[in-house]
Amino acid sequence: MPLAKAGQIELSYDRAGEGPPLLLIMGMSGTKHHWGERVLERLQRDFETIVYDHRDAGDSTRTGEPFTIAELAADAVGLLDALGLDSAHVMGISMGGMVAQELALAHPEKIASLTLGCTYCGGEGSVLASESVMRRLAEAMSSGDRATAIRAGWEVNVSPSFAANKDEYDRFLKIGMQYGLPVEVIMRQMQAIAGHDTSARLPSLAPATLVVHGTLDELLPVQNGHMIAGLVPGARLEILEGSGHLFFWEQPERTAELVREHAAAAVDA
Fold first, then answer.
1. What global pTM score does this model have?
2. How many domains does the chain have?
């Protein structure tokens, strides 16, 4: 289990694949394992992927303290520096997409290309999950039964048709049972998300940006993708019909294709 020193903490990470580096930034309640093998295998045909656990998650340092999205972005910079990387292609999803926004705004020189998936920028016009979705998740987490919480998370993270796929759910359940985060860590991540707002700064975002969002996203509705793409100069918006929040689980081949095309276009430009 490799660890990289990022400021005062250590981050657990994995590197695999061949090609230019691609830093993958996971979302709320996830670890480096939650990307799933199917999308990673496809990305590793064209990139050296770097996945890692946020502070307080997985095998990274447990601080037990509140943090902000900007601090998580500083952790990502520390990881790149520790790995000796001047720059990398970056893909962030959900909360990880918020981290990627702060990273790109603070250190545009670190970003070879930027992909923002199923994420949110805050500000007027942005939309979080509905009260009914949040209540469903809260009730499942407070049940004290991890399998119940994982099932509820699965059903709001993917489209109804994909939720019925037993093989995919079994993969997700196995990861969740082995690597799921404590509720108190998820609560601190939610607090960080509540304080996130890059909406006024996104028009100054410099790196070439791809925005990807599923039409059936219940956690961060597709309106957020349209908003971000409208704020970032020259951003490309890719809407995935029929996909939920975890579009990279539902459409791993298309996800890898989009990232590959976007990275190549950014390098050519």
1. 0.97
2. 1
The low-confidence residues of the chain, meaning pLDDT below 50, are none
Determine the structural domain holding residue 208 and report its residue range. Answer: 3-128+183-268
Neighbouring residues of 20: CB distance < 8 A, sequence distance ≥ 6: 47, 48, 88, 89, 112, 263, 267
Task: Give the separation between CA 75 and CA 109, rounded to whole angstroms.
Answer: 16
pLDDT one-digit tens code per residue, 92-141:
999 999 999 999 999 999 999 999 999 999 999 999 999 999 999 999 98
CATH number, domain with residue 51: 3.40.50.1820
Query: Residue 23, Cβ neighbours under 10 Å: how many?
Result: 28
d(CA 16, CA 77): 19
Beta bridge partners of 25: 92
Quote the distance between the C-alpha of residue 246 and its chain's center.
Answer: 9
